[in-house]
Amino acid sequence: MPLRRRRSHYQQLTEFERGRAVELREGGFSFRDIAERLGRNVSTVHDRWQQCTASRRPGSGRPRGTTKREDRRFRRMAVAHRTASAAEIRGVVGTTVTQQTVTSRLLQGRPSQTPCSVHSTAACDVAIVFSDENRFCLGASDGRVLVQRRPGERLQPTCLRPRHTGPIPGVLVWGAISYDSRSSLVVIPRTLTANLYVSLVIQPVVLPFMNSIQGGVFQQDNSRPHTAVVTQHALQSTDMLP
């Protein structure tokens, strides 16, 4: 080991390194692990810990919420049950600390949770068709025009601007998409009812579109035109999500 690097191992710890060493030690790390993380000598870290514990008054600071035995039980359960959450471990151990405290205790030595690789053939054989209708506004949001005026000039002709105060024009459009296909857009000219939904969307668009998709499952929300009896009767031959 070079002499310069060897001397740096024995140099005085910085303020950040001292706080980090105390934090890791209270978390259960050994002096050797702390020294490797900080790039310092074991004796330097050990001396800092001795100074910290000697200067700390008995009973000062916030008391620790869990015992070392409970911490070990947390870690053993995390290793034995890889998919268990912190809330589940907290309930099994029967501790009174919060879920965040259990999560903090599990940060040391617990394997990271990653999604399990599950092979599913059902997802490959089913094509979900998502459908919905939405109204698009064809005008301004409210038609207001901002005017700079002084007090008392509210009703002057130069401060008045005509604007549209009736219903804002818009158009209602329906559409459906799947993983690799999409339906044609349907413009709905007036308020959507169950009969209009069947005659304008279901029969001419949805049924031919679903017949062209192998294993397709139709999805729609629970609005009144979608859940009406006439709509459900028209979709009897189509697989639907509940």
Automatic annotation (TrEMBL):
UniProt-recorded name of the protein: Transposase IS30-like HTH domain-containing protein
Domain Transposase IS30-like HTH: 9-45
Pfam families, sorted: HTH_38
Top-rank taxon: Eukaryota
Localization: Nucleus
Single GO MF annotation: nucleic acid binding
Organism, as annotated: Araneus ventricosus
Coiled-coil region(s): none
Family annotation (InterPro entries): Homeodomain-like_sf (IPR009057), IS30-like_HTH (IPR025246), RNaseH_sf (IPR036397)
Entry's Gene Ontology cellular component terms: nucleus
Gene3D superfamilies xref list: Ribonuclease H-like superfamily/Ribonuclease H
